[in-house]
Amino acid sequence: MRSECVAVSTLFSLLFLHAAFLAAESAGVVPPPASVERSPPPPAATQPDPDAPLYATSTRMDRIGRVVAPVHINGKGPFRLVVDTGASHTTFSPRLVQLLGLVPSFDKTILLNGVTGSAQVPTVQIERIQAGDMVLEDVQVPVIWSSIMSNADGILGVAGLRNERIFVDFRRDRIEITRSRAAFSKIGYLKVPARRVAGGVLAVDTVIGGVRARAVIDTGAERTLGNTALRHALRSRRRSAKWQDTDVYGATETILSGQSSIAPPIKLGAATITGTEITYGDFHIFRLWNLDKRPAALIGMDVLGTVGALIIDFRERDIYFDVTSSPPTERTARSK
């Protein structure tokens, strides 16, 4: 949900088997300490960059990667919505609502949860939303602008999916949302079992610097976050680590203070990730997921989006990462 439950909160960055990771510049959820102003919404005249990838942008030195799906709304479109595995609500930008000819209702509001807090926001009533095989009918959709939308039209919250599979190919710039029944080739993919936690989000077991933790896979988050329990556990083991104060922004107006540090090796299944920066704090989103009492992390697009492709199977509760060729990056990951 960035992960803003709208998360707003994208896919997952390992480079397994001799591939490499990328240390991307910050852009939104956790801006650098020198940047403390909230970015204003883009003007209505803003148009997408025609040369930019349409749907699957891998993490690179100059930007955070993201996953965008073509979505039809009330028979119109397609519109471009950021796929957010940490969000339980699909969210529209004010500009998209205007294009649809709708007026947000302040009489029917929804409590929108984000990384840093929650807020009541206006909604619009939508008859049908379709992205591939995913169909939502007769739903109230929150209306709010978030920096993670950039020039997209909103957020596609997929945390509650039960029978679908999402396939993202960063190399070929494509995304597919299909029913999970069809078989697919697992050759070249690393499988990491997941489990559901509160809110329907998928989390995987991980070991960070020798500390056992649970990590939520959040394709809507731009940066990787950790809770205070993880910070305390790591501080007792890493007394020489350097920490930097950081402001953390979410979907709501609440701004929280966090502390950033380069994380020790992160083990996910058969892969070990090194060189990742984690920002730690007492974030609202971890309480929402009932992950505030034990060490936990939110894996964002600074880590996601550096593999060649990834598959999230909601029915089987498995996540697959492409372990073949990936673009060269600065961070490294190795298999056991």
Notes on the structure:
The protein has 336 residues and is mainly beta. It has 3 helices and 25 strands. The chain has helices spanning 94-99, 228-235, 284-288, and strands spanning 20-21, 56-57, 66-73, 76-84, 91-92, 105-113, 118-131, 134-142, 154-157, 164-169, 174-179, 189-193, 195-196, 202-208, 211-217, 225-226, 244-249, 255-262, 266-268, 271-273, 277-280, 296-299, 309-313, 318-322, 331-335. Strands 1, 13, 14, 15, 16, 17, 18, 19, 20, 21, 22 and 25 form a 12-stranded mixed beta sheet that branches. Strands 2, 3, 4, 5, 6, 7, 8 and 9 form an 8-stranded mixed beta sheet that branches. The chain has a 5-stranded antiparallel beta sheet with strand order 11-10-23-24-12, with no helix packed on it. A hairpin with a 2-residue loop joins β3 and β4. The longest helix is centred in the C-terminal third of the chain and has 8 residues, at 228-235. It is globular and about 55 Å long. Mean pLDDT is 79; it is low at 1-48 and 327-336.
Give descriptors for this structure.
25 strands; eight-stranded mixed sheet; 336 residues; disordered N terminus; disordered C terminus; mainly beta; 3 helices
